[in-house]
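Every protein is a chain of amino acids, and every chain bends into a shape of its own. The fold becomes a row of whole numbers, each drawn from a learned catalogue of backbone shapes. The protein below has been through that process, and both of its lines are reproduced in full.
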Amino acid sequence: MSSIHFISCKKASLSTLSLAISFALYISPLAAQEENKVDDDKNNTIEIISVVAQKRVQNELVVPVSMTTLGSEDIQATGANDLNDLSDMAPNFSTTGQEGHQAAIYMRGVGTWSRNIGFDTRVGVYLDGIYLGQSTAINQAMMELQQAEILRGPQGTLFGKNTIAGAVNLISIKPDAEEFSAHVGLEFGNFGSQQLSGRLNVPLSDTTAIQFSFMKNDFDGQYVNLYDDKEVGARKTQAMRFQLSHEFNDQFSLYFSYDDSEFTGSFVNGEALTDTFGSVPLSPDDPAAAPFVINSNITPSNDNENSGANLTLSYTTDSGAIFNSITGYRDSLGYYVSDTDYAPLDFIHIEYTDEYSNISQEFQWISPENKAFEYVAGLYFYSQEGKTDRSAITGPHIAFLNAAFGLTDPVVFKSGDVVYNRGTVDTSSIALYANGNYQLADKTFLDLGLRYTTEEKEVDFDLGRTGFSGAILGIGTGNLTDKYEDNFISHAIGLRQEIDNSNLYIKWSTGFKSGGFNLDFIQQNVLDAGARFDKETVNSIEAGVKGRYFEDKLKFIFAVFKADYDDYQVNQFLATENGSQITIQNAAKVVTQGIELGSVYALGDNVLIEFNYGYLDAYFDKYPGGGFVNGSDASGNRLPYAPKHSISSSIQYETELEAFGNSLFVARLGHSYTSKQYTTAWQLDEVTLRGGDTISFGAIDAHNLFNMRIGLVDSEGSWDVSLWGKNITNEKYLKQSYRDFFNTYTEQYGDQRMYGLEVNYYFN
């Protein structure tokens, strides 16, 4: 994506110090200076964007990766407040739209949510080069970002483990030692939406600057709980970031940042379609059967806190090589309460506490530019401690559960009984990597990458119960103490050819996702067998073309890909007689293949047109036992949340208005289309319940969403004001569907129409 820039008025200047530190933290000086800058020679061209997808500054058109780059104005123009809002803005890229442990990112149909501490994500999210960790930490606030890079396909050689499907690289605006600047923004909308944001940049000297950014966001939610008439999906978010930059001399610089974000509120665990046990559908006359309504004695709650620090030291040698030391610390804490029975009666509910602490250290050596051989080499250390404490707690109506399961004295549930799992997983990882390109001929380049990773996981896990003497739905009891060790060599090799204004590339790359332990409410036989699963691996081949045409008025990107995943880790609920068995197994082989197209065209001096398209054929090549009926064969079924077609497009118009002091009028209309997709490996549109009734379940129909923004920008770049709308046609569409532990069938709708007003003021 690219912002229209040829008549933009917003000020954007960075000092030499800021640029040096931005470089050290993977921020392109060219991007910082050229983003939104007027081109005096060609005032109707697409800007050149530099990226750091390969941990060194490069023009995005020469990077052999299918990627989408979103600048600060792109993020503002689309009204993105967090990572979920970037969904549908790039081909073959989506998120679940959830918070905390339910958050997940999908690239080319491959992704997952990590609901337990022994299971990792498939898409890595990085902030200024620091890995953010598990699902609880990935939905970052879009707070004063310079750029977001969405990298599709395995990124194993540069970003390492758990980027087997792709990576998201977030880059913050850095302190500027040249001049004082500040920004404050206000936003109001329906459903009680309110946001206050800002940034204060203060030069302390010619070589030192500090910067403080903040955001506070409130939202009332779009669901209602009939039980207590409370809003569901309500949230309060506050986030801050402190940054310090210092230049010791022309060659040596320092950057430090600390950020903290807190999220509190309720979340939609799902809208029940059936009774608790999946036996009969809700009656159409039941008020709880209406969209955006639940009926639970407990409103699910979700509280998260994420914080972290970054210390980067950068030294540039006399030859132009750069040595970086990047030290990171991240901590995330999540507390959740979920009404697992989805009913107004208090059968049982679950309380989760998950905590992750990550420490990373990376040393980089970046070669001088404009050499026949350019490269980045590094040594990477990573340590993570994951803790979990989860309790399923029975309520006063548990007697109904006894009757449903046919339990009689002395083995019955009693109010206040607890089934728990508690434990820790300590992960340590070391990696050595190199990635670069060698110029074979005038315009021919060989791209190479190699990474060796060794990893160790230690687990200490307890599964037990209090107040109940018998086995509960097959859930086991006992302790698991074990160690998992693994190593892997990821590689990438490719060839790139420059032809006139085009860059053609082909590459073969590999990657892996860590193995681990299934630490959840698991069956006794799973616990006795060690609850272990092995790593999964991928082999991917990708070819593409990138270029600028028609006197730089058109930017065009095209890629075709095929990836084969072996020992694919499947996280699912398998139905049992009275509930579900939670399993993680290396149960499948997966193939994902397709095409991606991105284009931006400057039509005249005032109009920018963008079109992105993704075609995806993602399926289980082999998956015995993954089907819905008695574990039938799911081989050939499509992957969950993998639509065949995804489109995002926009048209943006800008013109100067003399009547308003030569201010700039900006209007943008955006559209996204997602074709039909399935939410489980079963590939079903409907299911037959135990009582014999059939309900629609398991498919999300194709849907179109339209967003718009209309505003004015001051000619001096000191203020802007915009009216915005999301899902302006009020399209009713599903976001997910899910069968929970007691076989309750649930679904959740996407956001209804939202609209509001945004005002920003800039001080310089």
Observations:
- The radius of gyration is 26 Å.
- The chain has one domain: 179-763.
- Residues 1-42 have pLDDT under 50 and may be disordered.
- The chain is about 5% helix and 55% strand.
